[in-house]
């Protein structure tokens, strides 16, 4: 039955591609080739490169390519097709031209938040399709968070045009404390999501799953690099943080420490984090900020205590005046 399902999928691919070729629909033809029903093989480099090349032309061509891709993603009931569409979207985020990324960021046109709506995806056609369905849901969640984080950062994370470390440090130094915390939070959510990628299980040798794990791990490495820049920046401006910002930063560093265990199975991320001395920097910053938090909390208590005493002193003075004023009123009335 499984082989029959696979054969039907292949026949559907051939029929759709033949129809597109006859109708001279070039974008549709290459999209179908890149997102076939094969449950074990990822899109080839040639097919992905061809899809990305549609961003080299006019905005109309790029818009048509993104619309076809997203419509295929949101209408398919096949897990392999859905995963390959997500891989194509992921490659647009990482390597696409500005026009393609721009069209992706505003899809759909009525809202532009790009919710992929795959949290309930289920493909029960075969055992392998059922198992790949969980990867569709998990991978879609990651791609959505990648887009969300990129919007907050102001650039597409993991893109080939990411700035050099010196430029990123200079940019971070120009951010307000609030924006720096907001960006750190967005990057933390992304890293935590990378740590939630499921184990390969029975699809461990599946090249399609292997491609996805590799792409997700690359995003995790890029996110760690960006977080490291912000950790170093916070160390430079510790004395400029208010009490509320200190509390937020302590919470963020504790969450970041928790990511160490979550990404333990991601070999490349672990190596990069160790090379950057990420966890040592995070621990040192957390300890300094916790000491600041305790010191500021103590100063707030002392200040409040002094203020309360001052308020009592003022209240006593007012009462004394009121008493004298009342007594004088009675005395004048008696007269």
Kindly describe this structure:
It is a single chain. With 335 residues, this protein is an all-alpha fold. Helices cover 75% and strands 0% of the residues. The protein contains 13 helices and no strands. The protein has helices spanning 2-22, 26-34, 45-53, 59-75, 79-95, 98-105, 127-153, 165-173, 177-194, 207-236, 243-262, 267-275, 278-334. Helix 4 (59-75) runs antiparallel to helix 5 (79-95), helix 4 packs across helix 6 (98-105) and helix 9 packs antiparallel against helix 10 (207-236). The chain is globular. The N and C termini lie far apart (113 Å). Residues 19-24 and 301-335 have low confidence and may be disordered.
Instruction: Provide the structure class.
Output: mainly alpha
Straight-line N-to-C gap: 113 Å
Beta fraction of the residues? under 5%
The helix count comes to 13
Radius of gyration: 29 Å
Shape: globular
Instruction: Indicate the low-confidence ranges by residue numbers.
Output: 19-24, 301-335
**How many runs of DSSP E, i.e. beta strands?**
0
Tell me the major beta sheet. none
What's the mean pLDDT score? Answer: 80
**What's the helical proportion of residues?**
over 70%
Question: Would you list the SSEs in sequence order as H and E?
Answer: HHHHHHHHHHHHH
């Amino acid at each position: 039955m499984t082989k029959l399902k696979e054969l039907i999928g292949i026949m559907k691919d051939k029929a759709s591609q033949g129809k597109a070729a006859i109708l001279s629909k070039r974008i549709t033809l290459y999209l179908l080739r890149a997102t076939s029903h094969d449950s074990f093989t990822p899109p080839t480099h040639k097919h992905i490169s061809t899809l990305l090349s549609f961003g080299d032309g006019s905005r109309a061509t790029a818009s048509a390519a993104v619309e076809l891709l997203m419509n295929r993603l949101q209408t398919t009931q096949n897990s392999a097709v859905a995963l390959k569409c997500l891989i194509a979207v992921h490659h647009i985020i990482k390597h696409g031209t500005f026009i393609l990324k721009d069209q992706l960021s505003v899809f759909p046109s009525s809202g532009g938040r790009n919710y992929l709506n795959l949290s309930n995806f289920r493909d029960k056609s075969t055992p392998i399709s059922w198992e790949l369905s969980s990867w569709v849901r998990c991978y879609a969640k990651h791609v959505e968070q990648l887009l969300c984080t990129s919007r907050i950062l102001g650039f597409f994370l993991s893109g080939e045009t990411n700035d050099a470390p010196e430029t990123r440090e200079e940019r971070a130094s120009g951010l307000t404390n609030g924006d720096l915390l907001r960006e750190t939070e967005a990057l933390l959510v992304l890293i935590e999501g990378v740590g939630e990628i499921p184990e390969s299980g029975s699809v461990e040798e599946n090249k399609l799953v292997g491609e996805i794990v590799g792409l997700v791990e690359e995003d995790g490495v890029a996110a760690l690099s960006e977080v490291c820049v912000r950790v170093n920046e916070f160390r430079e401006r510790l004395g400029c943080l208010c009490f509320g910002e200190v509390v937020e930063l302590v919470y963020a560093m504790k969450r970041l420490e928790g990511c160490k265990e979550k990404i333990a199975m991601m070999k490349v991320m672990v190596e990069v984090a160790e090379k950057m001395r990420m966890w040592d920097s995070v621990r040192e910053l957390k300890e300094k900020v916790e000491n600041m938090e305790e010191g500021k909390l103590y100063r707030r208590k002392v200040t409040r205590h002094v203020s309360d005493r001052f308020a009592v002193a003022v209240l006593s003075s007012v009462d004394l005046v009121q008493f004298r004023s009342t007594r004088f009123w009675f005395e004048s009335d008696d007269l």
